[in-house]
Amino acid sequence: MYISRLEMCISKLEMCISSLGMKFPPILNYALLRTHYVSLVLTKCFSCTNKSYPKWIILCIFARITFHSVEISKLTDMEIRIRKAETSDFDRINALFREFAVFEKLPEKMTNTVEQMLEEKEYFNCFVAETPDGEIAGYVTYFFCYYTWIGKSLYMDDLYVRREFRGQGIGSLLIRQVISYAKDSGCHKLRWQVSEWNRPAIDFYKKLGADISGVEQNCDLVF
Questions:
Q1: Which domains does the chain have, with CATH numbers?
Q2: How far is CA 155 from CA 92, 134, 179, 189, in A?
Q3: How confident is the model at residue 16 (pLDDT cuts 50, 70, 90)?
Q4: Residue 175, Cβ neighbours under 10 Å: how many?
Q5: What number is the average pLDDT over the span 36-42?
Q6: Residue 185: closest CA among 208, 156, 219
Q7: Is pLDDT above 60 for 32?
Q8: Is the model's pTM score more than 0.85?
Q9: Staple 85 to which of 70, 126, 127, 154, CB 3.0 to 4.6 Å?
Q10: Which residue from 190, 140, 182, 184 is spatially nearest to 161, judged by alpha carbons?
């Protein structure tokens, strides 16, 4: 699957809006955003006379300035490919595992190795976000499970985007790919975890419609 730079920018704008507790006004619904260039969206924002959305102008200026200084005419040039991971990716993916462990403030918990991944590859399921020049910008891992109350489900284990690629909507593309995969596979639920301190992620997941419960806690027995 290929996703244009425009769609990544739109995903970022959506997350900014969500963090402010705002909703799309009718004039700027998602369909409009997906089918017009950012320049047209800006024009719509500035022509909107609805006084109840004053932050839209600020948001759109912010979005235009921070989208990596990419000219609007070039927004559709860069594409991110979301694909299944291959064994040839394991070295780079394992390095990202270590980055993620540091990000989660638990580097000592990461003990997996490339050799172990190769030995256990039949159990490893992963999508990666790949740039046009072959860099892996992020990944998401998952596995099937069965919950007695609902049945066949998918568990999303890790979702990680490298620091230099954050804020471009890549995380959104990855999780939407997993959601689509779960639905296509006949799953009744997708489950994952999020750290209590990671408020941006919590807000984003709530925007997706996730029910975030603080009732259950992890119980790990490591062998």
A1: 2-74 (no CATH), 79-207 (3.40.630.30)
A2: 22, 27, 10, 8
A3: low
A4: 20
A5: 47
A6: 156
A7: no
A8: no
A9: 126
A10: 140
For residues 21-52, one letter each, b for 16 or more C-beta atoms within 10 angstroms of the residue's C-beta and e for the rest, the string is eeeeeeebeeeebeebebeebbebbeebeeee
Q: What is the 3-state secondary structure (H, E, C) of the chain?
A: CEEEHHHHHHHHHHHHHHHCCCCCCHHHCHHHHHHCCHHHHHHHHHHCCCCCCCHHHHHHHHHHHHCCCCCHHHCCCCEEEEEECCHHHHHHHHHHHHHHHHHCCCHHHCCCCHHHHHHCHHHCCEEEEECCCCCEEEEEEEEEEEECCCEEEEEEEEEEECHHHCCCCHHHHHHHHHHHHHHHCCCCEEEECCCCCCHHHHHHHHHCCCCCCCCCCCCCCCC
The pair phi, psi for residue 21, each rounded to 5°, is 70, 25
Q: Which amino acid type is present at position 134?
A: G
CA–CA distance, 5 with 77 (Å, rounded to integer): 7
123 residue type, one letter: Y
Contact present, 148 and 138 (Cβ < 8 Å) = no
89 Cα distance to chain centroid = 19
Cα gap 111→213, rounded to integer Å: 28
Q: Which residue has the tokens 């540091």?
A: 102
Q: What is the amino acid identity at position 182?
A: A
- In the sheet with 2-4, reading across from the earlier edge strand, the strands are 2-4, 79-84, 126-130, 136-147, 151-161, 189-192
Q: Which position has the token pair 């619904």?
A: 29
Length of the chain: 223
Tokens matching residue 6 = 């425009």
